[in-house]
Amino acid sequence: MKILIITIWSLCCLNLSAQQGKSFRITSTYAMFPDSIRNKEPRIYDGKTYTASEHYNDSSAYIFVPDYFDKNKPFTYVVYFHGWGNNIDSALVQYKLKEQFYNAQLNAIFIFPEGPKNAPDSYGGKFEKPDTFNYFMKDAEQFLKREKLITTKQQANIIYAGHSGAYRVMSYLLLHSTYNCKGILLFDALYAELEKFSMYLQMHPSCKLIDIYTDNGGTIQNSKILMTDMLAWHWPFLSTEEDDVTQSQLKTNRIIFLHSKNKHNDVVSLNNNFTRFLQAVF
Predict the structure, then answer these.
(1) CATH number of 5-281
(2) Quick check: pTM over 0.70?
(3) Where are the domains of the chain?
(4) What does the alpha-carbon distance between residue 119 and residue 155 come to, in Å, rounded to a whole number?
């Protein structure tokens, strides 16, 4: 396999061209980690210390551009975040993220920044600070322009998606990102930050939310709380079972709560939910 290393200002890239499109590994000084807080205060969970050097020192991100992508048409960035105990490579395989993204057949680019690597942590690192994510996306876009995969004329929308502990970084991006968010996909991930998600939905009526939750994943109570709040606010939403929802319902309803009988780690890929939800947002 031919390996090409490209440096663009603070951005380094390992080009890993693959079937069905082009895959890249980039690094940026504006990635989630390294982060000054975790450098000073290591994560301690269940008596184990997760050091910055081992778990909070990866500034990489995975980018996938499908072969059907048309840079001359309007497009969207799909930015995905993994949960606890995972990393980019393990999550791509476990949840078939690249395959599901490709099968959605949407004019979009998939971006997957590294989070707390193989650590039980929801902390979003530098992405929790104002402007950092915007600079990270500028780095990614500069690379994509250099590769002639996008043009300089378009401002893309964005979809945030994530599993489990990814909820936290996603909620902060809703506060700080300058990109228009057209969809929030929470895969058994509504552990906290209900006010941030609600505020964004209120201020951006074109943004869609799909929250899928399980009985034992720790998110059922917050999902019910948010539904109760929305009833009081007279917000229309759909609440149904994962097994019963139709693609038409996913498409036509703006706010959707899906109860799943499956396990916490099955809600992303078992029923090709990532594919289905992406198609519903477009």
Answers:
(1) 3.40.50.1820
(2) yes
(3) 5-281
(4) 34
